[in-house]
């Protein structure tokens, strides 16, 4: 079957759908720089409706505040691309859904928008379970191209979901 995503991403998404279906678990996503592609990778798999509760595409700061409850103070103090924002995004996605596990990403895919402090290819990811376990990763993919940053982010996000499932 032809897919929009590379085979490694499909294989990881298939494993998540299989494991979560067997366990009766759901997942939600909160995405900025990936624009819904993590949810897209998961829903590429047949049977994903039993697992994917919802995805929040919060590309703007206003959307992060309104849809996920990210604090305006956090965005002003740390910026949209920060650990603090990713943590608040994942918390909002988890508690505004029926999911047991959520994942959130915010970053700078490029080619523009970077700075010395926050370069192109910087992505903050957070995954959280209802049990309270939270994982954060700061990834510096580099200026490898917009599509490659987004694909690398999807890979990392899906692996984080798998890691939380295993704990």
From TrEMBL:
SUPFAM superfamilies recorded: CinA-like
Chain ranges of the CinA C-terminal domain: 12-163
Q: Which Pfam families match?
A: CinA
InterPro entries hit by this protein? CinA-like_C, CinA_C
Q: Which Gene3D superfamilies does the protein's record reference? A: CinA-like
Kindly provide the name given to this protein in its UniProt entry. Answer: CinA family protein
Protein species of origin = Rhizobium aouanii
């Amino acid at each position: 079957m032809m897919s929009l995503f590379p085979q490694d991403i499909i294989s990881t998404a298939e494993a998540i759908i299989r494991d979560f279906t067997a366990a009766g678990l759901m997942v939600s996503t909160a995405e900025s720089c990936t624009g819904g592609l993590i949810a897209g990778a998961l829903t590429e798999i047949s049977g994903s409706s039993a697992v994917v509760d919802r995805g929040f595409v919060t590309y703007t700061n206003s959307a992060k505040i309104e849809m996920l409850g990210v604090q305006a103070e956090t965005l002003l103090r740390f910026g949209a691309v920060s650990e603090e924002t990713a943590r608040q995004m994942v918390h909002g996605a988890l508690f505004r859904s029926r999911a047991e596990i959520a994942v959130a990403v915010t970053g700078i895919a490029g080619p523009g928008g970077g700075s010395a402090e926050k370069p192109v290819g910087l992505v903050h990811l957070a995954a959280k379970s209802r049990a309270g376990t939270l994982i954060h990763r700061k990834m510096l993919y580099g200026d490898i191209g917009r599509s490659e940053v987004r694909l690398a982010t999807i890979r990392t996000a899906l692996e984080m979901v798998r890691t939380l499932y295993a704990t």
